Amino acid sequence: xxxxxxxxxxxxxxxxxKRRALALAGDDPAAKKLVAGLYDEFGFDTVDLGGLDEAWxxxxxxxxxxxxxxxxxxxxxxxxxxRDA
Length: 85
What we know:
By secondary structure, this protein is an alpha+beta fold. 34% of the residues lie in helices and 13% in strands.
């Protein structure tokens, strides 16, 4: 999750070690491709969670929720998510 203000001012170029990663989940491949392109255009990396059934991994109470993180950190936090949290 990212605040709207961060979307317009927090982006960084590809390869920047401080580039923030955002999670993406969805059941429509074309829509996910569009959103991932927008993330990139705004200066963010994408971590694809898969279908909507995996979106719980970034819900409130999960390690990845509302945390500034790069791709490796987001992937690690997603892997640590627990369904009963």
